[in-house]
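Fold this sequence, please.
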Amino acid sequence: MDSILEKIEQAIKDLLIGWIESNLTNMFTDVNDKVGTIASEVGRTPSAWNSGIYSMIRGLSENVIVPIAGIIITFVLCYELISMITEKNNMHEMDTWMFFKWFFKAAVAIYLVTNTFDIVMAVFDIGQNVVAGAAGVIHAVDSATTDCQPNDNVEALRVFMLAKKVECRPVWKPMHKQPVYKNAPAYVNGVSEAIFKVGMCLPAGPYVTDEDVKYIVECIKEAIIK
């Protein structure tokens, strides 16, 4: 009778696991597809979006806006230079450092005005790369099990504690051992893997009472004795 119930329980579990895996797979696939579509649309350059408008805006920037901005900057710089000279008693009390600051401000202003369009396009390219990098953020793996797993004692204790209505789990898996980060640079010395293989997280927090702590300790002692 027990074997029949166990088989029924296992069949129900397999059915639920298959249903959950199917739904999660479809959800992750949809997310990747939607993000990829958004990335391709948002990541289009202005010239690819509408080359005519792009050329018109660039022409206006180079032939109209930049000359006007140049005239305004020239007026401002000349006014500032004249004011600076007259305020210092017609160059009788001049400090050469003032000219260096003036030349520096003039150079920066001229550079920004003449390269405004390129700077805007550079900012756009950065945003484009960020959006493009978001495509395919969910990666499929062949198995949830990796080459870095808790040892058998940790899993046995977790199962035992779960039967005692105490939820425990292994410590967080090292980031460099997670499939999504397998190609990322990692600077390790083996300590994180060693801790993960033997460590376990126990219930903690403001809602864990002293009685709860005593019960957890007694359960762990019982598991060790067994």
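Residues 174 and 190 are 10 Å apart (CA to CA). The chain has eight helices and two strands.
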